[in-house]
Amino acid sequence: MGRLVIVSNRVGSSLKSNEGGLATAMLAAFDQRQVIWFGWSGKVTDEPPGPTRVQREGRLTRMLVDLEHTDYEGYYLEFANCVLWPVFHYRVNLAEYGRERWAAYNRVNEMFAERLAPALEPDDILWVHDYHLIPLGSALRRLRVDNPIGFFLHIPFPAPEVLATLPVHETLVRALFDYDLVGFQTENDLQAFRDYVQREAGGWTEDGTIHAFGTSVRAASFPISIDTRLVAARAARAMSTRQAARLRDSLSDRRLVIGVDRLDYTKGLVHRVDAVERLLESNPQYRRAIVVLQIAPPSREDVSEYQRMRAELDARIGRINGRFGDPDHLPLRYVNRSFRQDTLFGFYRASRVALVTPLRDGMNLVAKEFVASQDPDDPGVLVLSRFAGAARELKTALIVNPFDVDQIADALDRALAMPVEERRERYETMMAHLDTHDVHAWRDSFLDALQHPDGIFTAGHPMAAE
Ligand code: ADQ
Q: Which residues pair with 221 in a beta bridge?
């Protein structure tokens, strides 16, 4: 078996660590292969970056590259985070396009390709991840790398009209055609890609292969997932940890409602706390009967929109606690820090309801982790945004429009009042899905499709959620 070469902006720091959606999934996705994981070290330098650092840990070899300050700003902070992220999440008014940013984005992708290409062996297969690295496949092809290269987009693929607001949309989409396989989270994203190709590039689809720009690429949906059995086992154990016990003790007989998100404007946090306020306003019986715990570690603090959103959230949460709190009870607990995943799983299991209400989200692994963490005899209820990729699979969650504050408040009310039989039924349906559609199935289906070009498309895609 050839080596698997994973390329992503950030590289997981240890086989045992937990850090964000992509790293969590990739660490869970390793199998028996030798893996090379290539990407940015997270270090920013004033000088041109030194040689690629190589770290070996069992079957995993990490190859880490530093970024010079101007590249870090142009490629990462500006183009990836302030152009691609908002546009792909339908927030076109937040995108700040500039030619220098686009140039830096391409420059770093070229540099990554130049560093990676000499380390490759003929039977390696490459798997490139996410929006930071869309042009990497083209850069590698220019260096005559002809190994199979797959690309997986972790965030949504926007509707053509939205993508077309990006001045370089055509070049960006054309770059996807230098991969052998392009994977999206959901059928919806795949359809948006096809629509773009048809409308903007005069292309067409035939048996899972998309033709345009005088060439073609295979594309399919591969919904990312979690290590379901492992999460369930860890959640059951985590219930007896000190932190989970302290949280439970602090509740007395109040019910816990949990939200766990990176502090990001796509996650719908402002609408969510407004919904909590609405519920407490119209249903006074809940004022002392529930505790809403929102865990939201800060991210991208250098970006002004994130600072603005954080200030807005701080003010709203303060207002709600001022309005509905008592000397011995605050309805909303707000914690801006990270936790070990085991601790989070324990918190999920201690919760009666999870609010996962992003305005747009590629998948949302918190939704899947919450379900897998539940006690099968007394499971909690998931309130889930229809605009999270996960809603296409977790159909027995209470699905809401995250822009509709009243609807979220109603769903929360319904979840809190839901009898145990209905909770079990909904949980069992979702767990049955997650048991078969776990992160191992995700990895296998993507790598099988990459290595066997004729395999999946004629028979229909095994991971397709719809
Ligand atoms: P993210 O936007 O980071 O991921 P998500 O899918 O929810 O969103 O993944 C977050 C991960 O970080 C989860 O595994 C969660 O447990 C962990 N996490 C969150 N808050 C934490 C905290 N306070 N402490 C510790 N861990 C925490 C991107 C896309 C998603 C897509 C994933 C994977 O935006 O749509 O699902 O990639 O493809």
A: 184
Mean pLDDT of the chain: 93
Match 């396009």 to its residue by tokens.
97
Name the percent of the chain lying above pLDDT 70.
94
Q: How confident is the model at residue 453 (pLDDT cuts 50, 70, 90)?
A: confident
Instruction: Ligand 1, residue 389: give the atom nearest the CA.
Output: 35
One-character DSSP codes across 129-198: ESGGGTTHHHHHHHTT--S-EEEE--SPPPPHHHHTTSTTHHHHHHHHTTSSEEEESSHHHHHHHHHHHH
**Measuring from each residue's beta carbon to the nearest atom of ligand 1, which residues come in under 6 Å?**
20-22, 24-25, 154-155, 224, 260, 262, 295, 297, 338-339, 341, 344, 361-366, 369
Mean pLDDT throughout 377-395?
Answer: 98
State the DSSP H helix or E strand holding residue 68, giving kind and residue range, or none if neither.
strand 60-68
Output the CA 20–ligand 1 centroid distance in Å.
4
Residues 6+ apart with CB under 8 A from 301: 307
Phi-psi region of 255 (alpha: psi -120 to 50; beta: other; left: phi over 0): beta
3-state secondary structure (DSSP) of residue 454: coil
Closest ligand 1 atom, residue 340 Cα: 25
Domains of the chain are 4-225+439-452 (3.40.50.2000), 228-435 (3.40.50.2000)
Active-site residue list = 154, 361
